[in-house]
Design brief:
By secondary structure, this protein is of the alpha/beta class. It is 36% helix and 17% strand. An eight-stranded parallel barrel has the order 1-2-5-11-12-13-14-17. A six-stranded antiparallel β-sheet has the order 18-19-20-25-22-23. Strands 7-9-8 form a three-stranded antiparallel β-sheet, with helices on one face. The termini are far apart.
Length: 658
């Protein structure tokens, strides 16, 4: 179907007040993104493509006219540099507003701190108006157009976005798509029996349909929110509630829901939000007989939303919050017909899990097997790399990958849970078990990076020093993947688990708050004390970030190449670039490890000389490898046997020397 005249006419009618150049720009974008809009609507509403497209384009045209001129300028710059998120200078930071700066105005006052870290991407956790009491960390939204009263106002948010933008920092907000709070206006009207709004949700008069769905549905929170449906007395209906009883799943098969979120999306874009984190995106479409995750319609809907965003606010990017298996996850970045039509970013959950697995097992074989089997990243997209986030760590270990290296998937997952909960004799971790499921054996883990690596045990200097080395390895590996690294607030200061996490009654049943500590002024003041754990880790973050920004090899559009296992204690990752290649080495053990320099032969690096040379006195020499460690700017040499040595938990970023 070519672009219908009726759709152009509907856009033009809205654009009547616009200047000629504005109309021309919007219509040009409409033409460019019409195929993605059309193809997405064909999947979800094949009989109503032209009608629904016209509705959405009208919304886009109205919001385009309202967009501030400074944001139009941003749009033009983003269109000229579509891969801006892949730049090595992109470094992210994620925090709860109240725990980082107290209020939105307080966050603005701490932007100099973000500058020190080299941050160019700030994700503020859910800050839109939520329900009172337990709000699932802010993911139970009552109003998408208002900020929580304790944090400020929408005017404050717009002012903060402007302040950040002027400093070169992009503001990232959560866009909760799967559900709303039961107190949301739509849910209130559904409870009142208004048919239009009852159709915004999945509501059933008895258990017959819910029970049929439940046969194939997993439980997200089996401890405190078992099942996927909740009886609502006022509605006299079973309501679909995947996450919590107070979070009502939306019916995305209803085009009215699509229109509502289209307008909300562009409203937030016009306030200066540059990246929208598509929360719980995997759950949006329901299909009987499946786990109701990763359905094809999810990708179709994302392509529709992205096409509309590209028409009205192309400066806005999408980040998929889909914590799913790697072969499912890559779909969210756009493959085949959806290439460059879906999300610009997705969380590299597999990389994060394998980092923690490697340092617990002190063995890289499972990681190499898993990472080498990942599908390539689609054109135009890149990963979010991270070592921690606001959420728990779930052990997404594929049984087939485990079996390929002689492990049992269930036993390895149990080992990791025991290890990071501090329940095994050789553990260095001080983590907490989250959401233990006796039926599946699933036990996820909460904890800050310092607590999980042993660096918070300040009473034992040896343990602390070793934990610091582990943290430095995790930081370097996260910054070195080439995606967009994101620091979880407090980890850059090596903060331990918050001992008061359960003191707030709304958090008492959720130990994830242990790794969501407030950022105290005392810790901030200590960041320049290089003799402290806090100061040493902060300095390392800053240093690695500065090095990263100078290395074109770490552009997110370049693929990482995980090398085969030469030594099970060392992970080797190569990155090829026209400016010269790079090989990263990570010793994931507490002993010195050797890695054969001859394995560098396929990379454009310094020349590796024969190991058997003998000097005039008959002594074997240490042949030079023309390499430099980019992290320290020091030359790197191999020994007489041609091996490069790494100290316990050591890291090398090898590049060609001058």
């Amino acid at each position: 179907m070519p672009l219908p005249v009726s759709v152009i006419q509907r856009a033009s009618s809205v654009l009547t007040p616009a200047s000629p150049w504005q109309s021309d720009v919007f219509i040009a974008r409409l033409r460019a993104h019409w195929p993605a809009l059309r193809d997405g609507l064909r999947v979800v509403h094949p009989q109503r493509v032209e009608e629904i497209a016209g509705d959405l384009v009208e919304i886009a045209a109205r919001r385009f006219l309202e967009r501030p001129e400074e944001l139009h300028d941003l749009d033009r710059r983003r269109e000229a540099d579509p891969h801006w998120l892949s730049s090595p200078r992109m470094i992210g930071y994620a925090a709860y507003t109240e725990r980082f700066g107290g209020t939105l105005a307080g966050v603005a006052e701490r932007t100099a701190y973000l500058d020190e870290l080299g941050v160019t991407y700030l994700h503020l956790m859910p800050l839109l108006r939520t329900r009172a009491g337990d709000s699932d960390g802010g993911y139970a939204v009552v109003d998408y157009r208002e900020v929580r009263d304790d944090l400020g106002t929408m005017t404050d948010l717009e002012a903060l976005a402007t302040t950040l933008r002027h400093r070169g920092i992009s503001l990232v907000l959560d866009f909760v798509l799967n559900h709303v709070a039961e107190e949301h206006e739509w849910a209130t009207k559904a409870r009142a029996g208004i048919p239009k709004y009852r159709d915004y949700f999945h509501m059933f008069p008895d258990r017959s349909v819910p029970d049929a769905y439940e046969r194939t549905l997993p439980e997200v929170f089996p401890d405190f929110a078992p099942g996927n449906f909740t009886w609502d007395e006022q509605s006299q209906a079973w309501v679909w509630t995947t996450f919590n009883a107070f979070q009502w799943d939306l019916n995305w098969s209803n085009p009215d829901v699509l229109a509502e979120f289209t307008d909300i999306m562009l409203f937030l874009a016009n306030k200066g939000v540059e990246v929208l984190r598509l929360d719980a995106i995997a759950f949006m479409w329901k299909r009987m007989g499946t786990n109701c995750q990763n359905q094809p319609e999810v990708h179709a809907l994302t392509s529709v939303l992205r096409a509309i965003a590209r028409m009205a606010a192309p400066g806005v990017a999408f980040k998929a919050e889909a914590i799913v298996g790697p072969h499912d996850l890559v779909q969210y970045l756009g493959l085949g017909e959806y290439e460059e039509r879906l999300s610009d970013l997705a969380y590299h959950n597999t990389w994060m899990v394998q980092l923690w697995s490697m340092i617990a097992a002190q063995d890289t074989r499972l990681a190499v097997q898993t990472l080498r089997g990942l599908p390539p990243t689609p054109e135009g997209a890149t990963w979010i790399s991270y070592m921690r986030c606001h959420d728990d760590i779930g052990w997404a270990i594929d049984d087939r990958d485990a079996a390929a290296v002689g492990l049992s998937g269930p036993l390895h997952r149990a080992f990791l849970s025991d290890f990071y909960a501090g329940e095994s004799f050789d553990s260095f971790s001080d983590g907490l078990v989250f959401q233990a499921n006796p039926q599946t054996g699933d036990r996820r883990i909460s904890g800050t990076m310092a607590s999980l690596t042993g660096a918070s045990e300040s009473y034992n200097p040896h343990l602390t020093a070793t934990g610091m080395a582990r943290m430095k390895l995790l930081v370097a590996a996260t910054y070195g993947t080439g995606g967009l690294p994101v620091i979880w607030s407090g980890d850059e200061l090596a903060l331990p688990n918050d001992p008061e996490w359960a003191s707030d009654p709304t958090h008492a049943d959720d130990n994830r708050w242990a790794h969501r500590p407030a950022l105290p002024d005392t810790a901030l003041a200590q960041r320049h004390d290089h003799g402290s754990v806090t100061g040493a880790i902060f300095e390392w973050h800053c240093s690695v970030g500065q090095v990263r920004a100078r290395l074109p090899q770490l552009d997110g559009q370049m693929a990482s190449e995980v090398l085969p296992v030469a030594n099970p204690g060392v992970l080797a990752v190569g990155r090829r670039h026209a400016a010269g290649d790079m090989v990263q080495l990570y010793n994931v053990t507490d002993g010195e490890q050797a890695w054969p320099a001859q394995w560098l032969g396929s990379f454009t690096l310094g020349a590796v000389h024969d190991a058997a040379k003998v000097d005039s006195a008959g002594e074997r020499t240490k042949p030079a490898v023309g390499l430099v460690d980019a992290l320290t700017a020091r030359p790197v040499h191999s020994d007489a046997d041609g091996d490069i040595h790494l100290p316990p938990w050591g890291v090398l970023w090898l590049v060609a020397g001058d």
